[in-house]
Amino acid sequence: MDSILIRIKRAVFAGRYRFTTKALEEMDKDGLSKQDVAEAIVGAVSITKIIRSTSVFRKDRREMLYIIVSPTLSGLLLYTKGKLEKDVRDYVFYILISSKRAR
Fold this sequence. Notes:
Blueprint: H1 3-13, E1 17-19, H2 21-30, H3 34-42, E2 49-52, E3 64-71, E4 77-86, E5 92-101
Parallel strand pairs: 1-5
Antiparallel strand pairs: 2-3, 3-4, 4-5
């Protein structure tokens, strides 16, 4: 298993994950809970795709975004996109930028 995916799963297991407003809006639209998203990430066997952020708000380097498509425990296939981020204490957080049903 990819070491990045292991870091993401560990952050989610420890409750160190956050949702952007966009992700929360997508989840609400699709009737998804935070637990659904956490289940899909923890159950993932691989990162589907890695992309570089093209956000105009990034001044320095481009950050890596991780796309995971994986089912919840009840079999609902979810698409999530997020990034790993450290806080001032070096705790790793997984920030979910997008969370919705996979189409």
